[in-house]
């Protein structure tokens, strides 16, 4: 089978809700990433054959095929098509899989996989909270309710509580992990480890104000974070262990990677960052929902004939602290290899953009540490998980 290679990867620094990216229309923010990928790769924009873009809240400014709209707002020619997809938090990771599959099938040679989410301008849950009429219009159908009798809703928050209980994690452990995320993000930022991957964009505040300042660092990092401060944050559920402090932050951002064939590498003289070694996705229990990265990882390792120790670095999305902690416990992975530059608890989780965001960070971390194999996985709404293994070249 043909190989697929990543030749460019970029992301905006994360913006807090109502923060430094809140004034950006998500289409225009995504367009900046598309332009950056073309510039960084040196690929003739005419050769881009498709843009596949993940986005979870496809309503309002992110509706009507946000991928195609981002192409039209970019410097790419009109001949470049675009399509948008929703695999919940794994949307842009799935975009990468579809892009790589197009390359590996031989039907395309240059594809951009990207993601965008403005959680300031299109708040989380907006699509599912649209007005219902006469009790109709909710996404959970009668047949789903019959299959999952007694389940009123599929809640990620309750799923996180279930995982913490099932794997025996105390609130203390979750809060300590959250502090770790901030501390590692602080070190990575101060040591300029994100500098190469971050695309500078102008600060645009929610009221439209521009200051001439460039947005260069992830806005959600708490430089003054302490365990005592994290422990003091209100519980989301009485008697539970999950708080806003040990969960991922609401975030604005756009991210992307360019994927090309071996033919394109040779004809265009482009140097690859990595080769796609493995891709897979599974469905799992939609009630506990967030546990899927564990069986997905074990399946991926079995398919590749690799062990967890063969992987040099892991990126497991920090949707909630119990997710990476349970993944570590179940897989026997080395904690020192996990989310080495911090994760979504500190850096933010821009939903549909997080897949290629994590991949961008993983690729640069592999390069900085002179490592070979990286694995990325993330929990997804509905009880799913993608796994991507890359080999740095």
From TrEMBL:
Signal peptide: none annotated. InterPro entries: Thiolase, Thiolase-like, Thiolase_C, Thiolase_CS, Thiolase_N. It comes from the Bacteria. Residues 5-262 form the Thiolase N-terminal domain. It holds the Pfam family Thiolase_N. The active site is at 89 (acyl-thioester intermediate), 349 (proton acceptor), 379 (proton acceptor). Residues 271-392 form the Thiolase C-terminal domain. Keywords: Acyltransferase, Transferase. It comes from Noviherbaspirillum pedocola. The keyword Metal-binding does not apply. Belongs to the thiolase-like superfamily. Thiolase family. One of its GO terms (molecular function) is acetyl-CoA C-acyltransferase activity. NCBIfam families: AcCoA-C-Actrans, PRK06504.1. This is Acetyl-CoA C-acetyltransferase.
